[in-house]
């Protein structure tokens, strides 16, 4: 059966027929009784049908061309919704709109009926999703490997202003974007004995594959995201069942499924839980067994593996890949130890995403030895070899104080290690891996993060995307550097007017949504000032709400002091066990309660915090933003990627010299960026003064007043002592230098006020931010990985433009 190599152009009639066919024959539903869910499934299957062609084509070209493949191992893929993204990459959005009209269903309603695939916590998981889309858009042969969690990141709701978590269950409904692959299943062993290389696991589960095609821009290529689901090795225990011991009968199933049951909701604190280590090995071993099976189906010389396979470890979470690859090459395929180690190192790359000490994984040698006895042996031997080969200082190594440092293991077992922004990669060399960097100069490189412009501009912001395409054509979607052509238009009054109109369209849409879902009226003329990201002290949402309180207070004191009307928008989840972050959430909601009902400030200031921030909500909030809050303590945010999305969508950034903010400011121009705060070096120095917070607060009337209002219960009249701990921490344990940066931040905010009151000047700067955001495309990032780490090329180069 001939499958066209690219997404077969389909006209409205054909698509309509395909949708009707799927409704009847796949869903078994009569159009007269079809629900939104039914139409969504029917349309999804019809769209999915058009992905299969490019998918098969990609696989065939890769095999025929004996091309090198990239394998991206990640415990998280924060994908979001898939229907609209697929329609856009296949160029079928308009066709789908007309089909929806002719079949009488509302396409937007259908799109928003799809649950997010929330298989990630935050930045790391979303980056993995952007990377897969760019790998397909660039035609780079690649697989993503992840876990098919039954429950993704928890659902957040507020009770009395406090976060409450409930399980997320995206799989209760059928999931049209995956293909079960029961034939691709691998046994994953745990525990048991390992006697000189002979390991007999005492427990095991089956990793069973589910494949999701990832279509690229213009539907010219589709790679595979293979997700593993845990199944029991032994089926249902009928004997026990017949003896009435039903629970025991179902135990093997229940036990196995725990491995892919739920995503760990921590994104900055390593918990050291046994189940987490088992999940990490489950993913990694299944992936490596699958990779070697595919390699050996084409080649028979494993020593050439690095020429055809590049494996990237997304942080240390899959770092057991080093020892596991050595085990498979030696114990299973009989290669010699040294040869196996060299092959593994030449194949593996490791990306570090955080410097936070509490986030670095270090498994106790007891637990590692218990869960993975063979790997513990291999880790010790790797460590030994490295000590001998490098004559390293005693304090350097993988196993230290009875713990296995997964960062050091990943570093030593990789041929390239990278940070995710220029500042971060520099700090990685100077801090966490200082000694190893000395021993292995040149191994650490930088690959500054990026985001896909398809989802984060073309899909999320049709008004602006349309204006850009009308102005410079739509080449920018596949080549974001072309946005540069917008620069001259920044001086064009008419263009600026259209640009503001596009932003306003998004702001009005958001105001309506906030009105409908939260019952709060916000004024679309106000500056939409947005901070959306996981809640964490280093991201300093508390600095933002302190400034909000100061602004509110001063607005009340001098209403005519030239304030810009503002809507403060917060969004973000806290790890369930992170009490301080949860307190910050509570404070933001308490402050919102008071300010939003204050007749004095009225429309001049509103605070909204929609619950359950996720990818789909980001797509709604970012296009409507005027000001992007990137206010982390310098040296703490490895990169940030939200900052890039806001810049692309024409928001101005208020931020510190941290992570990729530094590069954003370099690209958009310092004059088009509201900078404040201590630099990373100054932070280190300032911390040496133990009174740094007290001194700063005593020098700031504003901050003193803010803390006074909070501590006297102004925002918690029913529980006046509620924030005594928080205020005490602000005075005495201000680890993230909120006090030291408060006045600088307040002043920068007033500068933003001033500029916002001059829409021509504001929009000129905003246009320049968009025009100069090309560098922050994940296509540019992936090209860097392909050239500097993976040694792979696009399989599309030289292929005439199929579209
Ligand atoms: C072990 C628990 C755990 C889980 C996840 C620790 C650390 C993580 C991630 C590394 C945290 C994370 O998402 N880091 C973010 O990665 C983004 C993508 O590179 C960066 O843009 C963010 O700055 C960084 O915080």
From TrEMBL:
InterPro entries xrefs: Glycg_phsphrylas, Glyco_trans_35, Pyridoxal_P_attach_site
Reactions performed catalytically: [(1->4)-alpha-D-glucosyl](n) + phosphate = [(1->4)-alpha-D-glucosyl](n-1) + alpha-D-glucose 1-phosphate
Keywords, in A-Z order: Allosteric enzyme, Carbohydrate metabolism, Glycosyltransferase, Pyridoxal phosphate, Transferase
GO MF term (any one): glycogen phosphorylase activity
GO BP, sorted A to Z: glycogen catabolic process
PANTHER family, alphabetized: GLYCOGEN PHOSPHORYLASE, GLYCOGEN PHOSPHORYLASE, LIVER FORM
Name of the protein in its database record: Alpha-1,4 glucan phosphorylase
Native species: Primorskyibacter flagellatus
Organism phylogeny: Bacteria, Pseudomonadati, Pseudomonadota, Alphaproteobacteria, Rhodobacterales
């Amino acid at each position: 059966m001939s499958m066209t190599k690219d997404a077969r152009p389909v006209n409205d009639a054909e698509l309509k027929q395909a949708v009707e066919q799927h409704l009847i024959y796949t869903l078994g539903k009569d159009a007269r009784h079809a629900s939104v869910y039914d139409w969504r499934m029917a349309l999804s299957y019809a769209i999915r049908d058009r992905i299969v062609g490019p998918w098969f084509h990609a696989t065939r070209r890769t095999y025929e061309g004996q091309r090198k493949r990239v394998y991206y191992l990640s415990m998280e893929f924060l994908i979001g919704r898939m229907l609209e993204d697929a329609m856009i990459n296949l160029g079928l959005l308009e066709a789908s709109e007309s089909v929806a009209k002719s079949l009488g269903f509302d396409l937007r309603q259908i799109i928003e009926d799809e649950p997010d695939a929330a298989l990630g916590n935050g930045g790391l998981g979303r980056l993995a999703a952007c990377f897969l889309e760019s790998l397909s858009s660039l035609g780079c042969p690649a697989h993503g490997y992840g876990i098919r969690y039954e429950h993704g990141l928890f659902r957040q709701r507020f009770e009395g202003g406090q976060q409450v978590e409930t399980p997320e269950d995206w799989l209760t409904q059928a999931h049209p974007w995956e293909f079960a692959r029961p034939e691709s299943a691998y046994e994953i062993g745990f525990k048991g004995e390992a006697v000189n290389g002979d390991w007999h696991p005492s427990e095991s589960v089956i990793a069973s594959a589910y494949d999701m095609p990832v279509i690229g821009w213009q539907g010219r290529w589709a790679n595979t995201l293979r997700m593993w689901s845990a199944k029991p090795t032994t089926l249902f225990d009928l004997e026990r069942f017949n003896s009435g011991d039903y629970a025991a009968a179902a135990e093997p199933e229940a036990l196995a499924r725990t491995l892919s049951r739920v995503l760990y909701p921590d994104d900055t604190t390593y918990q050291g839980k046994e189940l987490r280590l088992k999940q990490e090995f489950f993913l990694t071993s299944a992936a490596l067994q699958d990779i070697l099976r595919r390699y050996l189906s084409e080649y028979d010389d494993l020593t050439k593996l690095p020429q055809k396979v590049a494996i990237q470890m997304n942080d240390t979470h899959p770092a057991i890949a080093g020892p596991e690859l050595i085990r498979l090459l030696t114990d299973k395929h009989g290669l010699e130890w040294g040869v196996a180690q060299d092959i593994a190192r030449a194949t593996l790359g490791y990306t570090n995403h955080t410097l936070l000490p509490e986030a670095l994984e270090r498994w106790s040698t007891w637990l590692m030895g218990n869960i993975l006895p063979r790997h513990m042996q291999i880790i010790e031997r790797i460590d030994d070899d490295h000590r001998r080969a490098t004559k390293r200082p005693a304090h350097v190594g993988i196993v230290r104080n009875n713990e296995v440092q997964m960062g050091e293991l990943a570093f030593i077992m990789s041929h390239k290690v990278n940070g995710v922004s220029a500042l971060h990669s520099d700090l990685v060399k100077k801090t966490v891996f200082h000694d190893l960097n000395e021993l292995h100069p040149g191994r650490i490189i930088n690959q500054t993060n990026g985001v896909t412009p398809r989802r984060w501009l073309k899909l999320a912001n049709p008004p602006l995307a349309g204006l850009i395409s009308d102005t410079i054509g739509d080449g920018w979607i596949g080549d974001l550097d072309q946005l540069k052509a917008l620069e001259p238009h920044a001086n064009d009054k008419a263009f600026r007017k259209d640009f503001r109109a596009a932003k306003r369209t998004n702001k009005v849409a958001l105001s309506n949504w906030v009105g409908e879902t939260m019952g709060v009226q916000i004024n679309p003329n106000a500056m939409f000032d947005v901070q959306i990201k996981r809640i964490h002290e280093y991201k300093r949402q508390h600095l933002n709400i302190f400034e909000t309180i100061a602004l509110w207070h001063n607005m009340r004191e001098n209403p005519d002091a030239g304030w810009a009307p503002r809507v403060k928008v917060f969004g973000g989840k806290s790890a369930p066990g992170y009490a301080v972050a949860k307190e910050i959430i509570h404070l933001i909601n308490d402050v919102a309660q008071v300010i939003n009902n204050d007749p004095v400030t009225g429309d001049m200031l509103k605070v909204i915090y929609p619950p359950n921030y996720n990818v789909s909500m980001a797509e709604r909030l970012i296009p409507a933003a005027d000001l992007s809050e990137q206010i982390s303590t310098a040296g703490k945010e490895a990169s940030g990627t939200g900052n890039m999305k806001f810049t692309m969508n024409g928001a101005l950034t208020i931020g510190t010299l941290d992570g990729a903010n530094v590069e954003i400011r370099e690209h958009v121009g310092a004059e088009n960026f509201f900078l404040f705060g201590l630099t990373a070096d100054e932070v280190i120095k300032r911390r040496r003064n133990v009174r740094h917070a007290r001194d700063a607060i005593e020098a700031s009337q504003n901050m003193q007043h803010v803390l006074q209002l909070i501590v006297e219960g102004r925002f918690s009249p029913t529980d006046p002592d509620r924030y005594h701990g928080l205020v005490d921490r602000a005075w005495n344990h201000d680890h993230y230098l909120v006090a030291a940066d408060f006045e600088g931040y307040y002043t920068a905010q007033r500068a933003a006020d001033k500029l916002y009151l001059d829409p021509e000047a504001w929009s000129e700067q905003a246009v320049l931010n968009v025009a100069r955001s090309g560098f922050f495309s994940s296509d540019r990032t992936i090209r860097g990985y392909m050239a500097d780490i993976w040694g792979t090329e696009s399989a599309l180069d030289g292929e005439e433009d199929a579209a």
